[in-house]
């Protein structure tokens, strides 16, 4: 099970990196989503896939009766999902606004902050 | 079946009995104050006239708490607070040692100065869009990153400070800002995601995320390849956060676009959080792997310094030039992290200390002789390098913030931030020009200011640990930065103002002269540190050396978390 999950994580990372290397922001956004999901799956796998029993303590008992799933990775993933979702929402708005204002989603043509024809500094006075 | 007695036993194993004393909450107080003020200011979003007058007391309180924390750590050693009374390693630990305390206090110091500057330089519209809440949120994230003792928690604070910084970066929504913010946001998000990937490997290997716990287990761990992989991933992630070559391209693309006060805080604090995390995660947790990686860190440091220095020489805009000064500073800090135990026992600190005594004259002779003794005894190159790196990082936090703030006032007076359009400031604002000269001297590493002593320590350390080329690059970078600084001063301050008013003159904030006190006070506050650390460096060298020793031998850190019974 862990091997299969590792392969899935590897595929997600490969696709995400390929998309992130693109010049176009819309592809980079998709890359960010896939990268975030790949990480979540990686944390889940790193916590070991041992048992599928939910980590619940039945009424009257003080400890779980059987082996249960590791709850810590799930707490970590929940945090990471919330964070990556909010960042993705921010990036979407930012990318859309940048597309509206700059008229391009090609990062090579986004040269407002670093103009290309900005000559050398004055060499004397 | 488990009975009530078992439950009591389990509780005794996992939880601390009894309540915490109020003084123990000091460890989390910096974060709590920041988040509290952020929330209160957000609720008062309709009363934007109150914002500056609430923000200044907020930052005064933050700085006071930071100083108290530093004093407590200096007197009693590392402090730990466990969340929810859970025993380590079950709960989330906040652990502050000398390294974290020094960084968090310096962060509070520059935060205070920047807030005073922001009270007049940030317009009402920008206040309405939430400048001060974002500022407190970012400071909360920065403070949390310096104080936490849990790796996943460190990731969360990175994200908190990133969200705050995104808000500050796009405040104003100019085309330039949208362009810069796009690159900043994507690359920083990828860097933190890489950090998270590394955390999941770390968790998979050790089954714990408590730094003190990992520190104990890493020494007994056998699979060196896995630890080396994790260390390399940490190095890449934090080099990206710190803008070290070749992962530095997002910084010159974005740091000159927001308001000057925002640039100042970003340049001072955000890259240094990456440096701090690198020291904490790689040097403290994986010392053996750090020794393997030291050569690579040395090359990264040398190239980063040269990229920063040559980049600064090529710029015609004052702010973009300062962007490259930040990068050169990061390279210098990395140079200190490249020194290892190999080679003879260094005497650099001791020599620097005795040299410092010569400069102060008799003034602080008593204090120096009091603390000189421990500096002489068997100081290893690792401690020397780390101590110089921490000293340089603290200096860089203060002086980069000061330079951007001074540049902001200069650009406002001159109506331009281009070196082609500025001029005549020496005549129009002599006080400002004098302060600029102090900060330019400091950033270039010239005595008698704060940049000189850490460079002395680093260059001597590099020569003594068999890396003379690294020492040479530090000196060459210092020379090139002096040339770039001289050009800034000659063009923007010394020469007469260019005759035709520049067509591209820009508006740098609300019009009308700020009250002289408000515009000069934050610069004076920062200059106090720059001069104090330059004229009498001994107190800071002593503190950074304690910090470096705490990282090289984390027994006190681990003991603070596990109550001495690690």
TrEMBL record, chain A:
One of its GO terms (cellular component) is plasma membrane. It is found in: Cell membrane. It is a multi-pass membrane protein. Keywords: Cell membrane, Membrane, Transmembrane, Transmembrane helix. Belongs to the CPA3 antiporters (TC 2.A.63) subunit C family. This is Na+/H+ antiporter subunit C. It comes from Jiella pacifica. Gene3D superfamilies: 1.10.287.3510. Pfam families: Oxidored_q2. PANTHER family: ANTIPORTER SUBUNIT MNHC2-RELATED.
From TrEMBL, chain B:
One of its GO terms (cellular component) is plasma membrane. Keywords: Cell membrane, Membrane, Transmembrane, Transmembrane helix. Residues 149-343, 383-478 form the NADH:quinone oxidoreductase/Mrp antiporter transmembrane domain. Its main location: membrane. It is a multi-pass membrane protein. The chain crosses the membrane at residues 25-44, 53-71, 91-117, 129-148, 154-172, 184-206, 226-248, 260-287, 293-314, 321-339, 389-411, 432-449, 469-494, 515-535. It is found in: Cell membrane; Membrane. PANTHER family: NA(+)_H(+) ANTIPORTER SUBUNIT D1, NADH DEHYDROGENASE. Belongs to the CPA3 antiporters (TC 2.A.63) subunit D family. This is Na+/H+ antiporter subunit D. It comes from Jiella pacifica.
């Amino acid at each position: 099970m862990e091997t299969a999950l590792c392969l899935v994580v590897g595929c997600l990372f490969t696709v995400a990196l390929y998309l992130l290397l693109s010049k176009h922001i819309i592809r980079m956004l998709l890359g960010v989503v896939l990268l975030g999901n790949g990480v979540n799956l990686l944390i889940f796998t790193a916590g070991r896939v041992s048992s599928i029993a939910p980590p619940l303590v039945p009424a009257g008992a003080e400890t779980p009766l059987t082996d249960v799933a590791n709850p810590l990775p799930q707490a970590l993933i929940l945090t990471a999902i919330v964070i990556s979702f909010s960042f993705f929402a921010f990036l979407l708005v930012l990318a859309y606004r940048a597309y509206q204002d700059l008229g391009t989603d090609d990062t090579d043509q986004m040269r407002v902050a670093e103009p290309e024809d900005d000559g050398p500094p004055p060499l004397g006075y | 079946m488990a009975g009530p007695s078992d439950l009591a036993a389990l509780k005794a194993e996992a939880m601390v009995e009894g309540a915490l004393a109020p003084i123990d909450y000091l460890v989390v107080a910096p974060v709590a104050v920041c988040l509290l003020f952020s929330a209160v200011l957000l609720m008062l979003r309709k009363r934007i006239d109150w914002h500056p007058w609430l923000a200044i007391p907020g930052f005064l309180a933050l700085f006071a708490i930071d100083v108290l924390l530093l004093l407590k750590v200096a007197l009693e050693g590392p402090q730990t607070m466990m969340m929810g009374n859970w025993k380590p390693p079950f709960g989330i630990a906040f652990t502050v040692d000398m390294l974290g305390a020094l960084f968090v206090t310096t962060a509070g110091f520059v935060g205070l100065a920047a807030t005073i500057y922001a009270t007049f330089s940030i317009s009402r519209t920008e206040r309405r869009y939430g400048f001060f809440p974002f500022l407190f949120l970012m400071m909360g994230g920065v403070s949390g990153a310096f104080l936490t003792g849990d790796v996943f928690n460190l990731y969360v604070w990175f994200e908190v400070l990133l969200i705050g910084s995104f808000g500050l970066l796009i405040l104003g929504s100019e085309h330039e800002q949208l362009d810069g913010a796009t690159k900043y946001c994507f690359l920083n998000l990828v860097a933190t995601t890489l950090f998270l990937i590394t955390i999941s490997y770390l968790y998979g290997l050790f089954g714990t995320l408590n730094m003190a716990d990992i520190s104990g287990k890493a020494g007994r761990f056998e699979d060196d390849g896995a630890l080396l992989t994790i260390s390399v991933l940490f190095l890449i992630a934090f080099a990206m956060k710190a803008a070290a070559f070749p992962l530095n391209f997002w910084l010159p693309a974005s740091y000159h676009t927001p308001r000057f006060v925002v640039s100042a805080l970003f340049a001072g604090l955000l890259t240094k959080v990456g440096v701090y995390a690198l020291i904490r995660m790689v040097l403290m947790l994986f010392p053996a792997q750090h020794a393997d990686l030291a050569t690579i860190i040395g090359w990264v440091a040398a190239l980063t310094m040269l990229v920063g220095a040559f980049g600064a020489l090529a710029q015609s805009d004052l702010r973009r030039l300062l962007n490259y000064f930040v990068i050169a500073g990061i390279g210098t800090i990395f140079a200190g992290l490249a020194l290892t135990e190999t080679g003879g026992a260094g005497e650099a600190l001791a020599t620097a200390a005795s040299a410092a005594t010569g400069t102060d004259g008799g003034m602080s002779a008593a204090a120096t002789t009091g603390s000189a003794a421990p500096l002489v005894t068997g100081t290893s190159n690792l401690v020397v390098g780390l101590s110089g790196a921490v000293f340089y990082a603290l200096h860089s936090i203060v002086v980069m913030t000061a330079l951007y703030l001074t540049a902001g006032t200069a650009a406002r007076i001159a109506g331009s931030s281009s070196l082609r359009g500025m001029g005549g400031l020496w005549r129009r604002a002599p006080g400002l020009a004098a302060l600029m000269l102090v900060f330019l001297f400091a950033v270039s590493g010239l005595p008698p200011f704060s940049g000189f002593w850490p460079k002395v320590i680093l260059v001597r350390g590099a020569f003594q640990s068999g890396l003379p080329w690294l020492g040479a690059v530090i000196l060459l970078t210092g020379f090139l930065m002096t040339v770039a600084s001289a050009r800034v001063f000659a063009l923007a301050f010394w020469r007469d103002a260019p005759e035709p008013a520049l067509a591209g003159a820009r508006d740098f904030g609300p019009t009308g002269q700020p009250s002289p006190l408000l515009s000069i006070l934050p610069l004076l506050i920062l200059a106090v540190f720059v001069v104090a650390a330059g004229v009498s460096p001994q107190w800071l060298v002593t503190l950074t050396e304690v910090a470096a020793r705490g990282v090289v031998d984390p027994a006190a850190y681990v003991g603070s978390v596990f109550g001495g019974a690690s």
